[in-house]
Amino acid sequence: MRARAAISITAKQTLHDPVTKTLGTAAVKYEDSTLTAVRLSAGSSNLRALIEASNRRKGDPTESQLTLRRALGLDVAVTEGVWINLRYGRQRKISGSGEETGALMMLNIGPSALLKLAGS
Predict the structure, then answer these.
(1) CA separation (Å) from 26 to 15, 66, 80, 93?
(2) pLDDT by residue (tens digit) across 14-45?
(3) How far apart, in whole angstroms, are the C-alpha atoms of residue 31 and residue 96?
(4) Which helix (H) or strand (E) covers residue 114, if one does?
């Protein structure tokens, strides 16, 4: 089990994205948005630690921008192709009026796990 590190950069362009604070109103507002994130991760094939940051803009967040601006994380392998992702960091409030601390937990199932199940 050898430790390794990686830097990754991702970008997402969304067209006609609903602004979250207008979703409960009769006049839902839509905007185009771009989200870019940089992640530094290090670890082994079973455990990864990471630091990530995004350009999550100020102002009213859109649906696709509900993400952490800065975060620390831990990814733990449950089995081959299945990971639990934990994140803790700062995010914009849905109302757009400042920042708050947030935490996320996700279950990530990779294609290799699905292919093995289908081939069984």
Answers:
(1) 20, 22, 46, 22
(2) 888 887 778 788 888 888 878 889 999 999 98
(3) 14
(4) helix 111-119
Amino acid identity of 8?
Answer: S
Residue with tokens 């975060």: 71
Q: How many residues does the chain have?
A: 120
Task: Report which DSSP code applies to 62.
Answer: B
Name residues whose C-beta falls within 8 Å of residue 117's C-beta, 6 or more positions apart in sequence.
Answer: none
Location of structure tokens 């630091």: 51
Radius of gyration for the alpha carbons in the chain, expressed in angstroms and rounded = 17
Long-range contacts formed by 44-53: CB under 8 A, 24+ apart: 44/1, 44/2, 44/3, 44/4, 45/1, 45/77, 46/1, 46/76, 46/77, 47/74, 47/75, 47/76, 47/77, 48/74, 48/75, 49/73, 49/74, 50/74, 50/75, 52/87, 52/89
